[in-house]
Write a structure and sequence with these properties.
The complex is a heterodimer of chains A (484) and B (870). By secondary structure, chain A is α/β, with parallel strands linked by helices. Helices cover 28% and strands 16% of the residues of chain A. In chain A, the strands form five sheets. In chain A, strands 1, 4, 5, 6, 7, 8, 11, 12 and 15 form a nine-stranded mixed beta sheet that branches. In chain A, strands 2-3 form a two-stranded antiparallel ribbon. In chain A, strands 9-10 form a two-stranded antiparallel ribbon. The radius of gyration of chain A is 23 Å and the shape is globular. The two termini of chain A are 42 Å apart. By secondary structure, chain B is mainly α. Helices cover 50% and strands 4% of the residues of chain B. Chain B contains 38 helices and eight strands. The longest helix of chain B has 29 residues, at 398-426. Chain B starts with 6 loop residues before the first helix and ends with a strand. Classes of the chains: A alpha/beta (484), B mainly alpha (870).
């Protein structure tokens, strides 16, 4: 299925061993693809020292340093959120005009010709100086209207959750590709040496599990790390019950001596040296992991800001607060799952319930980032895997629609207070300034100082673009999103 | 036969032979020529390759000189008059590549100029006429073994020493016996030697000791588990489909067992390939499972061959594709062709699904011809037990009806209780809520649905156990007992045929390939850009034109018995002269021993892949493989008895590092990190609690809550009831595409979305955290500690001695012994002081010692020496 490579591959035509710079010692990879990243075909010179997670300069000056991607899983309706369609209200209860049916609409659970249009119950108002229209689902987020850029014309090709989630995360409909967190980490490296630089949290479940936050054909070092929002947060950070810290230190120091003696006889093998340094990093992670999730030192007003004091918002609020703490500590890419917006049944009710959980925490996150001066360097994105149909499913439900949906961005160099692109009058198809998911990805990368055309690696003899854009693909940055 | 090679003699005698080889590869090795071809590949071949834009094809010298519609591309010896150079340098029209604003970089132009002036050589100059130009598509010709020594060393060494001699590099000395022991064990069975096994080999002073060891290991049934796992990587084996639904493939494991058995039996590789592609078509009329108490052995053998085709039934699949039969079929065919090409042919054919291959002579038509080969096939689930036994199961089917009735009866009772409770609950709600709730669900308006929600939710979430009256409690108990009885009454086996049912009450079955009725086979179309909606002409089953070699017709014909295209394809693929099949597998076997193949891109023998480091050796191995009846075990013996295999991996000099930093010429052995499965297996083997059970349904070891947290549907990881099942070898652990066993995930086990040519090796901190802190690692340390006490007695010296022998297959050095004992006493006193502390858990000093020994074992599980094979 995946036309290019296996997930964990070793097919590079010439492997090299790389030393790892001390301090940031994740490394010791044996893989030549990184070296060949920008010199396809040519044999790149053997690097004396190479740390796959070392900080790398961007291709050009970056506006954003990190990303918080808030994934509204299930597919929120653009018509109830960010895309006001007064015309749709007029046609409420009527069948789709024949001009639409000619397009041969593919939908997951309903037939377009048998379904009636359904207006929204939400009320859209203009907000802020800019007058950006947002529905009353998000009263708190609306206060940041002047910071938000809404792309109303996003689209892609799959109306099914599985592949749609896959393309939003990886730029491809197929399995086995690296996720956007992996691209960014590959392109820019990590600014933390004691935490995973690409972290994922879910308030409920991850529909595609870990397959879409993986590193695909890149080394596993670039994959997302899931932080459990309950209990022990990260895997294996706690020494086993009877091992006290004192004992662990005794073990580690003896281990180091033995491993160094083993290395002394094999001093040209960089992976063995990297391995020894990994134990130091592991030890630091044991400290940094619990410190990260310890919210007890956050002042009360911050807890309130994120809604930790309210039952509905406490869960997602905690995730948003943790996101800010992660970015503060140098985490490059935070991916939040907010579930579940799949409003097949009663779309309005589903969305109201979800918005109550989401609105306050996201607004709190923006406020907090802003007051700390972090919003300018942190790109915040809100997106589902698709939007929903203007036609009704069952009792006031809406089916999936990847043909025209809204994505919101803020911070990280985004020019706020504006809507970009438009769907048609019924809010079904992206009609003006269409922004494919690839364009959205290209724009995110641009803000991070990365040219998506240059993010290539060589896999199984093929030059493979990380973002999944095919060779014929000509995807562009939505320039109007970017601040002057 | 063997012995240490007298290197000096070898070098003297090698001289002449080497000269011949060197001149043959001269053109390819010439750096200017190579660089020039790289430039052509990067900038020109996407249009002027198979695409032949304007009639120009730059892939071969003849067509370069012939040129396209604008005339010859090159005037040999004169770059300034050569159209190719002028276009690239923007010295006139056309300017190339199309749309370029600037000429190619000066450096590139200089290379092109030099190349044209040197006569524009192509690497394949001198290839036999009529054959494809690329090395891997030409028939392997058995090369002459370089004559090195009258004592007739292993021919492998002749080839390797010849190359080393060329670069004036001394080979490393032979590794010591202890190193060879561990190397051979992990290479062939993926497990460490026990102290007794180690002693036996180390004390065997016979010159044939190593050969005997190899034979012993090849005869072990653990061999198939080790090498079967390598093959499972290549065929993207998994027990589920991936994506959102991650649909389960309940019979995939039969293929895993088939592979393990095939390796253990040393099934000839040609036969192994044939069975996987066309097991059903090889023996089409003998698959009905009729018999009395026993099925004819021949039938069983044919059934087993057919399980080879299960390969095509466990690919990645989007469950929702079932909404669209045509798309589903296309995705399956794509997976079938891509996997076939990668696994058996070592070709990356995927690109030619969308366009003619830019670099290799494969067209889009070739690609869809191969899809057509598989187009008449469909998945079938068939019983693998006699029809007598399936009949017996149906005799017992009334048990299932009784069970369904018991469940229905429980559910009716449950509803009665719920209905009673909800009536009471209604009193807490205002009348409009109650009214809305009383409207039947499907008739409720949106408003009513919203009003009724709290009651509806309460009803749905209600656990009746929380609301039972005394009388209901009694009835509840009765119902539950009845249900349990009904469940237990369902037989677990058909005793008279000794057939155990699968799962709950399923007939043991296999999912394999069968056929659609010929008249129902959908046409296969060549698809523009690989898009299902852009159909061009109908394509018939056929072989890739570049590989047909003239002797086989363009399209495969319909067999009188039906569309046996896969069989024809498989037989063609396994002809002894096929250029790819034997080479690709010989290379994989080599990779399994040295960490890399002679061609490092073992799934890509095309132009974008790597070139063989030792082309003659690869051809010699490929022909030898065929000559030895495609015996994989014979190849292991051959390779492992070479000097090249037995070299020290630690040897190095500045000269070696400088001349061949990647050890492509094999002047020493490559050090290798154990794969995730091998680490898992070793942890259990050294602790002595590895469960050696073979085969059967996937095993599911317990996981911590955090490890489970990213799993969407927790029952997907339904932990095996038998604790011993969690201690089986890694190859038997459930391989879900959507959820890799977390320990494997950290140690680079592939996720099986496509064929995996070889494992990546990362070295990351989460690996260290796993072996330091994970429950399983700690549990194994404790089991090992208890074993040490049991087998070595109470003395720390003896315990340390045994620990080293078990974990590292060698005794500790004096320093290590002392250090370990010091660490032990330090840990004991620390644990002891805790134990004697009033707030401690009342542990006795003995517990302190046990903890200390456990922690020493834990430390050993983190040794580099444990994770690496020298």
């Amino acid at each position: 299925m995946n036309p290019y490579s296996c997930n964990r591959r070793a097919t590079a035509s010439s492997r090299r061993e790389f030393l790892t710079r001390s301090g940031l010692g994740f490394g010791g990879l044996a893989l030549n693809c990184m070296l060949q990243a920008e010199s396809a075909g040519a044999d790149a010179p053997a690097a004396a020292a190479y740390n796959p997670l070392g900080v790398k300069p961007p291709h050009f000056a970056a506006k954003a340093r990190s990303v918080i991607f808030i994934f509204l899983q299930g597919g929120p309706s653009q018509l109830e959120t960010f895309d006001p369609k007064p015309e749709l209200q007029k046609y409420d209860g009527q069948y789709l005009p024949p001009s639409y049916l000619k397009k041969g609409i593919g939908l997951a659970q309903i037939k377009a010709e048998e379904s009636k249009l359904m207006g929204t119950r939400r009320v859209f108002r203009k907000h802020g100086q800019s007058g950006l229209e947002i529905s009353d689902l998000f009263p708190k987020l609306s206060e940041f209207a002047d910071d938000l850029a809404v792309i109303r014309s996003c689209y892609h090709e799959s109306f099914i959750h599985g592949p749609a989630i896959t393309i939003i995360h990886t730029g491809s409909l197929l399995m086995g590709q690296p996720s956007m967190g992996a691209w960014v980490l590959y392109g820019l490296g990590s600014e933390t040496d004691n935490l995973p630089a690409y972290m994922v949290m879910a308030d409920d479940y991850m529909r595609n599990s870990k397959s879409v936050i993986g590193s695909g054909f890149l080394p596993a070092v670039y994959q997302g790390t899931v932080l459990s929002t309950q209990g022990a947060a990260l895997e294996n950070l706690q020494p086993p019950g009877p091992v006290t810290q004192e004992n662990q230190q005794a073990i580690l120091s003896q281990l180091k001596q033995w491993n160094q003696r083993h290395l002394a006889d094999r001093s040209d093998d960089s992976s063995l040296a990297a391995r020894i340094r990994n134990y130091e990093l592991a030890f630091r992670m044991q400290m940094a992991g619990p410190e990260l999730i310890d919210l007890s030192r956050e002042p009360k007003h911050i807890n309130r800001l994120y809604g930790l004091d309210t039952k509905e918002t406490a869960n997602f609020g905690r995730m948003c607060l943790l996101s800010r703490r992660m970015v503060e500590r140098g985490v490059r890419f935070v991916h939040l799952y907010n579930s579940d917006w799949d409003g097949h049944g009663e779309c309005d009710k589903n969305h109201r319930e979800n918005a109550i959980k989401t609105d306050g925490p996201v607004a709190g996150l923006l406020a907090d980032l802003k007051q700390r001066g972090m919003l300018d360097s942190t790109l915040v994105v809100l997106a589902g895997e698709f939007g929903r149909t203007p036609i009704m499913q069952g009792k006031e439900g809406r089916d999936h629609s990847p043909y025209g949906f809204s994505v919101v961005m803020a911070g990280g160099g985004i020019k706020g207070g504006k809507a970009i692109g438009a769907t048609d009058e019924l809010g079904f198809y992206a009609a003006e300034d269409k922004v494919h998911v690839h364009d959205m990805h290209a724009t995110m990368l641009e803000l991070l100082g990365l040219d998506h055309h240059k993010l290539n690696v060589k896999v199984s003899g093929l030059e493979k673009r990380l973002t999944g854009v095919g060779e014929d693909g000509n995807h562009s940055v939505a320039k109007r999103l970017l601040a002057g | 036969m063997r012995g240490c090679l007298p290197v000096r003699t070898v070098q003297c005698l090698a001289g002449l032979a080497v000269l011949g080889i060197a001149s043959l590869v001269q053109a390819a090795a010439d750096p200017t020529s190579q660089a020039a071809h790289a430039i052509l590949q990067k900038h020109c071949l996407s249009c002027h390759g198979a695409g032949q834009m304007s009639g120009l094809d730059l892939r071969q010298r003849e067509s370069l000189l012939k040129g396209g519609s604008r005339g010859p591309a090159v005037v040999v010896g004169d770059a300034s008059q050569s159209l190719l150079y002028r276009s690239a340098a923007h010295l006139g029209e056309p300017k190339m590549p199309p749309g370029s604003r600037r000429p190619l970089p000066q450096g590139d132009l200089a290379i092109l100029k030099e190349w044209i002036e040197a006569g524009a050589p192509y690497p394949e100059a001198g290839a036999a006429a009529g054959e494809p130009s690329w090395w891997s598509l030409k028939k392997p010709r058995r090369p002459q073994v370089p004559q090195l020594d009258e004592s007739a060393p292993n021919p492998i060494d002749a080839f390797i020493l010849a190359k080393l001699r060329e670069r004036d590099l001394e080979p490393a000395p032979e590794a010591d016996k202890a190193t060879l022991l561990r190397r051979a064990y992990f290479d062939l069975i993926g497990l460490p030697p026990t102290p007794a096994q180690a002693d036996r080999f180390l004390q065997n002073t016979s010159p044939d000791a190593f050969e005997e060891l190899i034979d012993e290991l090849l005869a072990s049934s653990h061999y198939g588990e080790r090498w079967g796992r390598h093959w499972l990587d290549v065929v993207r084996y998994a027990d589920s489909a991936g994506f959102e639904g991650d649909v389960f493939y309940p019979n995939a494991w039969r293929y895993r067992d088939y592979v393990i058995k095939s390796f253990n039996e040393d099934k000839p590789y040609d036969r192994f390939v044939q069975e996987q592609i066309a097991g059903d078509e090889l023996f089409p009329n003998n698959l009905e499972m009729e018999g009395f108490y026993d099925i004819d052995p021949e039938k069983l053998e044919h059934m087993e061959a057919r399980i080879g085709t299960t390969l095509y039934t466990f690919g990645p699949e989007i469950q929702e594709s079932h909404l669209d039969a045509e798309r589903l079929r296309y995705e399956r065919l794509t997976d079938a062709v891509d996997t076939t090409a990668a696994a058996f042919m070592g070709l990356t054919l995927e690109c030619s699904r969308c366009h003619d291959h830019k670099f290799d002579p494969f067209t889009q038509k070739d690609y869809f011809r191969l899809q057509a080969v598989f187009a008449a096939s469909s998945r079938k689930t068939i019983p693998v037990v006699s029809s007598m036994s399936t009949g017996h199961r149906r005799e017992d089917y009334h048990r299932m009806i009784a069970l369904a009735e018991a469940r229905a009866s429980y559910q009716r009772f449950e509803k009665q209780v719920k209905d009673r409770v909800i009536e009471i609950k209604k009193k807490d709600y205002p009348p409009e809520v109650v009214r809305a709730y009383e409207v039947p669900m499907e008739e409720r308006s949106a408003r009513e649905l919203e009003l009724a929600a709290p009651l509806a939710q309460f009803y749905m979430d209600m656990k009746i156990e929380d609301h039972l009256s005394d009388e209901e409690t009694k009835r509840h108990g009765k119902h539950i007992r009845k249900l349990a009885r009904a469940v237990l009454d369902v037989p677990v086996e058909d005793a008279s045929h000794r057939v155990k049912y699968q799962g709950f009450f399923d007939v043991p079955s296999a999912t394999v390939l069968g056929h659609l009725k010929p008249e129902l086979v959908p046409d296969t179309y060549l698809l523009n850009r690989g898009e299902l909606s852009l159909k061009r002409e109908i394509v018939h089953p056929g072989l890739p034109a570049a590989l047909r070699g003239g002797s086989v017709p363009d399209t495969l014909s319909m067999d009188p018995f039906g569309p046996r295209y896969r069989k024809q394809f498989a037989l063609w693929l396994t002809r002894p002269t096929h250029p790819l099949t034997a080479r690709v597998m010989a290379n994989r076997i080599w990779q399994g021993h040295f960490g890399h193949g002679l061609v490092r891109t073992s799934n890509d023998f095309g132009r974008q892949g790597g070139r063989p480091s030792h082309p003659e050796l690869l051809d010699w191995l490929a022909t030898e493989f065929v000559d030895r009846g495609w015996s994989v075990k014979a190849m292991h013996r051959l390779i492992m008895l070479s000097d090249a295999y037995r070299r020290d991996s630690r040897y190095t000099t500045a000269t070696h590092r400088q001349r061949d930093p990647e050890n492509r010429l094999l002047w020493r052995m490559n050090r290798r990190r154990l794969e995730g499965e091998a680490v898992w297996d070793s942890l259990h083997a050294v602790a002595g609690n590895l469960n050696p059970a073979m085969g059967g349904r996937p095993t599911i070891p317990p996981l911590s809550k955090v490890e489970m947290s990213s799993l969407r549907i927790k029952p997907w990881w339904a932990v095996s009831e038998d604790p011993a099942a969690g201690r089986r070898r890694g190859v038997y652990i459930l391989a879900r595409r959507n959820f890799t066993f977390p320990m494997f995930d950290k140690f680079d086990v592939p996720n099986s979305s496509v064929s995996c040519a070889g494992r990546e090796v990362t070295t990351v901190a989460p690996q260290a955290l796993w072996s330091l802190n994970n429950d399983a690692s700690f549990r194994q340390a404790r089991v090992l500690a208890d074993r040490l006490v049991r087998e070595a007695g109470p003395g720390p010296e003896d315990q340390v001695e045994l620990a080293w022998k078990l974990v590292l297959a060698r005794p500790p050095t004096a320093d290590e012994r002392q250090e370990a004992i010091t660490l032990l006493s330090r840990l004991t006193s620390s644990n002891g002081s805790r134990a004697s502390h009033p707030s401690g858990e009342g542990a006795e000093p003995a517990t302190g010692q046990r903890e200390a020994l456990t922690q020493l074992c834990l430390a050993m599980f983190n040794l580099s020496e444990f994770f690496y094979i020298d």
